[in-house]
Amino acid sequence: MKNICRKYLTSFVRAFSFMVLTILLSLHFGAGNCLAAFGEDVEKPKPVFSKEGSAIFVKLLPRGKSKSIRIRFEVTGGDLADIQAMDLPKTENSDIDKKDFRSDLFTVHVANVPVGGEVTILSSCDYYTSATRFYVFNEKAASPWSDTNATNKSLPDRVQDLTFSVKDGGPYDADGTADGKITVNCGPWDSFWGYAVGTLFIRFFGVFLVLGVLQTGMIICGKLFERADKRRKIEKEALVKVQVLEASRDAVETVSATVMEPEMVAAISLALHLEVIREMESGKALDSDQSAWNLYGRQKIMSDRLLVFNRHTK
Amino acid sequence: MSWAHVLELIQQILISQTGIPHITGGALLMIGVGCLFMYLAIAKDFEPLLLLPIGFGIFLVNFPLTPLMGETELGYPELIRAFYHYGVEWEIIPCVIFLGLGAMTDFGPLIANPKTLIIGAGAQLGVFVTYIGVLFFGFTLKEAASVGIIGGADGPTTIYLTTKLAPHLLGANAVAAYSYMALVPLIQPPIMRLLTTKEQRLIKMRQLRDVSKKEKILFPLIGATLIVLLIPAVAPLMGLFMLGNLMRESGVVKRLADTAENDLMNIVVIFLGVSVGATMKAETFLTWKPLIICVFGLIDFIICTAGGILTVHIMNFFLKEKMNPLIGSAGVSAVPMSARVSNMEGLREDPTNFLIMHAMGPNLAGVIGSAAAAGMFIAMFQ
């Protein structure tokens, strides 16, 4: 065991050292590329836009998902002119993380707005949850990122509607002027860590649940099988008992069929009794295997058995 | 033709048709890593069935200009790329390996003591802790899930999940999973001794009841029904696993069961090993992430082992007949290595205490548990 452990330990230490050395050397060879792996946004959604009537649909693969989703944008109080994808602006606000914008950020252009008027932007998707919020970015504002406190309404088929208002030239309007056009940099926001930790607990207990259900199913099946086996065993035992009973009845009948003289029976009984008394007095009674009566009996039985196989004697 | 032309031609051949001028430091390092894996497999008998083809895959693919992992001008995959595409990306190989595993597995100990299934669930603790841990290092949710599953100590499940969620980490995850599985006899015993008292290690468990053939035949059907109903995402893995087991237990298709557990398994292991190794090209592998995966994989294994043992401790609060907590470490599904470690640790304390059959229950539960955890992650990202 010690040798095996030593062997494994040596291999492990070597492998680990080699791995560390490899990584350090590789960093030396091309640190820029290596560290880029951390900064690289490998999951950045690549939205595709399509206009259907007055609405614009965005199809994209959100962060942390394997299936694409469709987000619908619509505007009341103006014309939805265009929507473009937007990179996360670099700001000093450390609270904002690109991972919180799982469905990307967009620049929404609204035209034909009454000067200084207000429009309502509606965004709906079955990927939103009741906790989804809508954030707006305006670099000209004192606090660039702000929560729009959008109304979150649940619709059939698990679709959530997020609605918020933007005033021409107001704090959410990126161009900052009341000119009949509104530009809003915005995106649906979900807490990344809230989702990660929340789902972690659900999934971990989910594994317990699945195996617990399987365990229950197996226990029930096991009990059924055990009961069936037990019943079968009882039936078998009962059958054996009946057979034994019948066999013993036959034997008794055979013995009782052998007619013995009462004098003979009394003589055998007396002989047995005297033998036991004698052995008890001599202290040999406990060692019954070596009593003369016993040895004689055994010898007689064995001789009788041998007779059966010894054809020559017949 | 002048000498200048001849020299130019030679130069052109050297540059465009040989790999020598294109070799990089990173590629040389990876060739070294490949050689190390082959050395560990050949000289140290360290998971040779996988490390040898993986090592050779790394070795081969890191030579420059090799037509192995790319595509031809007509868009056809090159040799190893074809293995990888049809075997791994199409998720065929991990599922076929599960078919073979099913054909090899005797679920008797688990059927005789279904309580041990909960230990298999408890031993998945590390999977979820690691998932959160690597998120702090900038991994994405999908990458974190694929790294977390390493602690499940189930090679095909790790490969299956990683291919689905983070294929660029396949090489690192597969190597970490198989390496730590080989190191189970080294990693687990200190944790087992740390988390148990001498009295607990001396607990003798009642002999398991006999399991009838009918029960063994029904198990794959009941198991598949319940698991697939609750986690449909894991149907490819568990479906083939249970099919393999049904082939074994029914006894009517011995040839098929034999092929699944031997020939077919051996064939796919060759393609799997080479394909996984070939994903470890210098330009994709030489980053910080494999190092973090290496460290977190170890932490993952340790927490999974501890999770299994702690689950037994908790279960013992409620059970009349106490279980030996040493069997908890077998919830890490490195079959049958971790069950053997439990048995060895039991025998260390009491040479008459044989725990192998009791430990096989949680060991098999670990296989189902890690597949369930993988299914949970797949469902999460759907």
Question: Which descriptors would you attach to this protein?
Answer:
heterodimer, A: 314 residues, alpha+beta, 3 domains, 6-stranded antiparallel sheet, 5-stranded antiparallel sheet, B: 382 residues, mainly alpha, 21 helices, 0% strand
What does this structure look like?
With 314 residues, chain A is an alpha+beta fold. Chain A has 4 helices and 11 strands. Chain A folds into 3 domains: 48-190; 194-255; 260-313. Chain A is 46% helix and 23% strand. In chain A, β9 and β10 form a beta hairpin. Chain B has 2 domains: 27-61, no CATH class; 90-198 and 208-280 and 287-380, no CATH class. In chain B, α15 crosses α16. Chain B has helices spanning 3-17, 25-43, 48-61, 79-89, 92-104, 108-112, 116-122, 125-135, 141-148, 155-165, 170-182, 184-194, 198-201, 213-230, 235-250, 254-261, 263-278, 282-285, 288-318, 337-349, 356-380. In chain B, 71% of the residues lie in helices and 0% in strands. At the A-B interface, α1 and α2 of A face α2, α6, α7, α8 and α9 of B.
State the gist of this model.
The complex is a heterodimer of chains A (314) and B (382). Chain A contains four helices and eleven strands; from the N terminus they run H-E-E-E-E-E-E-E-E-E-E-E-H-H-H. Chain A has 314 residues and is of the alpha+beta class.
- Gyration radius of chain A (Cα, Å) is 47 Å
User: Helical percent range of chain A?
Assistant: 40-55%
Tell me the series of helices and strands of chain A, N- to C-terminal: HEEEEEEEEEEEHHH
Terminal residue distance of chain B: 64 Å
DSSP helical segment count of chain B = 21
Question: What topology emerges from the helices and strands here?
Answer:
The complex is a heterodimer of chains A (314) and B (382).
Chain A: H1 2-39, E1 48-52, E2 55-60, E3 69-76, E4 79-86, E5 105-111, E6 118-125, E7 133-137, E8 145-147, E9 151-155, E10 159-167, E11 182-189, H2 192-257, H3 262-282, H4 292-309
Antiparallel strand pairs in A: 1-2, 2-3, 3-6, 4-5, 5-11, 6-10, 7-8, 7-11, 9-10
Chain B: H1 3-17, H2 25-43, H3 48-61, H4 79-89, H5 92-104, H6 108-112, H7 116-122, H8 125-135, H9 141-148, H10 155-165, H11 170-182, H12 184-194, H13 198-201, H14 213-230, H15 235-250, H16 254-261, H17 263-278, H18 282-285, H19 288-318, H20 337-349, H21 356-380
